[in-house]
Design a protein that fits this description.
The protein is built from 4 helices and 12 strands, in the order E-H-E-E-H-E-E-E-H-E-E-E-E-H-E-E. The chain folds into 2 domains: 2-105, 2-Layer Sandwich (Alpha-Beta Plaits); 112-248, Alpha-Beta Plaits (2-Layer Sandwich). The radius of gyration is 18 Å and the shape is globular. The longest helix is centred in the middle third of the chain and has 20 residues, at 138-157. Strands 2-3-1-5-4 form a 5-stranded antiparallel β-sheet. The protein has a 5-stranded antiparallel β-sheet with strand order 7-10-6-11-12, covered by helices on one side. The protein has a two-stranded antiparallel ribbon with strand order 8-9. Residues 241-247 have low confidence and may be disordered. The chain is of the alpha+beta class.
Length: 249
């Protein structure tokens, strides 16, 4: 389940890395006084994530942008929605953003996905985060997101689950200049700033069947990889129009 927040910027917001932990702090502030109060202190999985701002990355005065919060926990989304409805503005750092619309909705997995924020996994060494530039192992990356996805799904549902096919049968990354796949996002984790590397994907294709549809629906709302509650690993389904072109929903 999802919430889309449409807003208008009242000031410039530099790219930097303040966005993700500031949006996370905004979400946690909305949960104060609810059954989810204190979620930020809980150990283990936190079953929500959020997208980058869109369209585009720069935010200038008067710009109208959106972001989406998603979670497989419908009560979590309902709680946020009720808390968001009376809110007129929120802040990124000390910069105000005027909320224009809050919409609650559901999407179904199509078997084709696009990332709405970078996907992060742990390094092969167990310390730090994986990069394609330094570790260059698609096999490890796929294994890491698969293991994490199955662990999250089991923790959420209370039932073990096994995949019969690879989690994604086709993967097409966004490639930056000089062939780089990795993107770096500066975030604040426990009061310290880090540049977190991740990868963005313009196509992640899966074999969705009646037997695994709930699993992919879960991933679409919980996110893939780690640091989901900091806004990493957000997924959108892709659809095709009548001309066969792909679009994010």
């Amino acid at each position: 389940m999802r919430i889309k927040v449409d807003f208008k910027a009242e000031d410039d917001i530099p790219m930097g890395g303040t966005r993700k932990h500031d949006i996370q702090a905004f979400i946690y502030s909305l949960l104060m006084g609810t059954k989810y109060d204190g979620l930020h202190d809980d150990r283990g999985f936190k079953f929500f994530t959020f997208s980058n701002f869109f369209p585009g990355i720069d935010v200038r005065p008067g710009d109208r942008k959106s972001f989406v919060i998603s979670s497989p926990d419908e009560e979590f989304i309902e709680t946020l929605y009720e808390k968001l409805l009376p809110v007129e503005r929120f802040y990124i750092g000390n910069r105000p953003l005027e909320i224009e619309r809050v919409k609650k909705f559901r999407l179904r997995p199509t078997g084709r996905f696009i990332t709405g924020s970078p996907v992060v996994v742990r390094s092969m060494t167990g310390r730090g985060f994986f990069t394609f530039h330094h570790e260059n192992s698609l096999g490890y990356f796929i294994g890491a997101i698969t293991e994490n996805a199955l662990a999250k799904y089991t923790a959420f549902t209370g039932e073990p689950f096994q995949l019969e096919d690879p989690i994604f049968v086709r993967m097409v990354p966004y490639v930056r200049r000089k062939g780089w796949i990795d993107v770096y996002v500066r975030v604040n984790i426990r009061g310290r700033y880090f540049d977190v590397p991740g990868s963005s994907w313009k196509l992640l294709e899966a074999k969705v069947t009646p037997d695994n549809r709930d699993f992919y629906a879960f991933l679409m709302d919980a996110g893939i990889g780690i640091l989901n509650s900091l806004g990493f690993g957000f997924l959108n389904p892709l659809r095709r129009d009548k001309r066969g072109e792909k679009h994010g929903k």
